[in-house]
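Lecture 7 notes: from sequence to structure.
We start with the chain below.
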Amino acid sequence: MQKDDLLRKVVQDAKVNSSTTLSELGEMMSRSGGFTSAKVAAATSILRKMFSEENTTFLSFPADIISTGTRGIINQLVSGKLIDAIITTTGTLDHDIARTFSPYYSGTFDISDAKLRDMGINRLGNVFIPDSSYGKVIEEFVQPELEELYREKKAWGCSDLIRRVSLKIRNEGSILYNAAKNGIPVFVPGITDGSFGSQLWSFYETHRDFQVDLFSDEHQISDIIFDARKTGALMIGGGISKHHTIWWNQFRDGLNYAVYVTTAQEFDGSLSGAKLEEAISWKKVREDAEFVNVYGDATVILPMMLGPLL
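Predicted C-alpha cells for the same chain:
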C-alpha cells in the first residue's frame, strides 16, 4: 500500500445539536477519523450490507443485556426479521420470560449486596430484580408448558422446545415470542446454565423419560451453515454465544461479515477478548471478510450503531 492510499480520508470535525439524528451522527462519526466513533460507523456500514444482501445473519449475545432496555433493540432486530438465527445463553430465556410478566428496576452499582439479599432483591449490575420477578415467575410459566409438550412426545430438540414454549408467551415485547413467530431459531448450547435449564432438570426429576436433544440443534445449525451463500454475524459480548457462532462458521471457511462489540481485552487469551483477527487464524472468519471490533458497553454502542438501520 502506497502513502497516497493511506492519506485519502481527511479528518473532519463533527458538529451536533438537539436536532441531530442518529443517521447524521453516524455520518459524522465515519468522517471523524478516530477512535471508537470511526469503528461504530464502520460497524453500521457492515451491518447495512449484512442486512440487505443475500446473507444468513447470526445474532449472538449474553443474557445480561436482556435485563436492560437494550432488550427492546434486540427485539427490533428480531421482529424486523433482520437476523436469521440467534445463539445465546440460558439467561436470555430467563430474563425475557420474567420481564414479560414482571418488572425489573433501575438500581445502582453502589449498595450493600447483603442488604439487598435481606430485602429479597437480586442485583445484576445496576439492575434490581426482586425475588418475586424471577424464579417463581419462570417456574409458573414453564412447568405447565413442559407438561403439555411431554404429553405430545417425550424427546425434544432444544431449539424446538424453546420455540414451542415461546409461542405461548403471546407478547410482542418478548424476543422469544417474536423469534418463534418469525421462524427465527434460538439456539442455547449451554441450556442447563440458568433458571430455564433448572426448570428442565426439575421436570426431568419427576419425568425420567423426558429428553432434551442437543444434537438436534447442532444438526439444525449445520444445515443453516452449509445452505448459506454468505454468512454474517453481529456478536455482542463473548463466551459460549460468540464461540458457537464462529465455531460453526469455520466449517464453511469462515464468516463473510462480522461485527463484534465487547468490553474484554485480549491480553489474557480469553475468547471474549479475542479480536476477530484471531478468528482468521482458526478459519472462523475469512481473510477477505469485512469485519470490525468495537470496544464499549453494548447498551451504549448498539443504539448508535443500529439506530440508522432500524
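Points to note: The chain has 14 helices and eleven strands. The chain has a mean pLDDT of 97.
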